[in-house]
């Protein structure tokens, strides 16, 4: 289920619970709305509100940390590609096949990580985790250094290429949604209960309805941001692929 759909369901559940609370208020006998009952319900809703705030804070911190980690890995991949290309440029003309292999590998690397965008760029994109970097490493292994300078650059290039392949594998194998659905389900149920208690003792009026509407929308928006951050390579907050895709200019404009 999509992020927008889950957020919409959460909003409907919270606002619907507020409506149910209003209906209950009109049909419950007066003895159920005594001061003692109000105090117990307030204490229960305060407990659930505290747990909800704690869980929301943990989810925001967790998804934000994971998002920033993935973003740092993409930046590192981009830097590895540029360093590898510069290293092969300094190696000499013999490294031109390696540099071309790198440029051919970039679309496969990007399509393997941003799988939701693959069809927009290549209709035949396959999602093999070792596609791209394997060809680059194979070309590097075939280089035959003639002096110490080339040997040092080849060794460094292999080191950077292995690092690039490792990051690609980590990003490729990351799950689409790391947050377990029961977490979101429990969170929505807690929030719905809280919204239901809001209208249990207050008579409805336009101001209360507007406040509840904005509050439900705000809570649903928080869930939307959490779920969107949990999918760093899709959605509104996705990590951009353009810097990695365009990290290396075409080899034809660099060499005659």
Task: Please describe the structure with a list of short key phrases separated by commas or semicolons.
256 residues, mainly alpha, 9 helices, 0% strand
Architecture overview:
This protein has one domain (3-244). The model is unreliable at 118-127 (pLDDT under 50). The two termini are 51 Å apart. It has 9 helices and no strands. The chain is mostly helical.
Offer a quick outline of the entry.
The protein has helices at residues 3-27, 35-91, 96-113, 118-121, 133-141, 148-172, 181-198, 206-229, 242-245. The chain has 256 residues and is an all-alpha fold.
* Global shape: rod-shaped
Tell me the fraction of residues in β-strands, as a range: under 5%
Label the structural class.
Answer: mainly alpha
Count of individual helical segments:
9
Summarize the SSE layout with pairings.
Elements: H1 3-27, H2 35-91, H3 96-113, H4 118-121, H5 133-141, H6 148-172, H7 181-198, H8 206-229, H9 242-245
């Amino acid at each position: 289920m999509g992020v927008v759909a889950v957020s919409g369901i959460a909003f409907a559940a919270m606002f619907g619970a507020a409506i149910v609370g209003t209906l209950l208020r009109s049909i419950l006998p007066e003895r159920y709305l005594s001061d003692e009952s109000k105090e117990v319900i307030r204490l229960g809703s305060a407990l659930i509100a505290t747990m909800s705030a704690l869980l929301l804070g943990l989810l925001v911190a967790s998804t934000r940390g994971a998002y920033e980690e993935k973003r740092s890995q993409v930046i590192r991949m981009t830097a590895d590609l540029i360093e590898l290309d510069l290293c092969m440029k300094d190696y000499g003309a013999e490294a031109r096949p390696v540099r071309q292999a790198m440029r051919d590998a970039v679309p496969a690397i990007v399509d393997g990580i941003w799988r939701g965008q693959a069809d927009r760029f290549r209709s035949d994109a396959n999602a093999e985790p070792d596609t791209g970097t394997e060809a680059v490493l194979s070309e590097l292994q075939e280089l035959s250094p003639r002096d110490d300078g080339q040997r040092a650059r080849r060794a460094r290039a292999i080191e950077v290429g292995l690092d690039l392949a490792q990051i690609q594998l980590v990003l490729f194998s990351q799950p689409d949604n790391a947050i377990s659905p029961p977490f979101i389900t429990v969170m929505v149920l807690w929030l719905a209960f809280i919204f239901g208690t809001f209208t249990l003792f207050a008579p409805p009026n336009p101001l209360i309805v507007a406040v509840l509407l904005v509050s439900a929308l705000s809570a649903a928006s928080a869930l939307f941001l959490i779920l969107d951050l949990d999918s760093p390579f899709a959605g509104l907050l996705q990590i951009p692929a353009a810097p990695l895709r365009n990290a290396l200019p075409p080899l034809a404009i660099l060499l005659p």
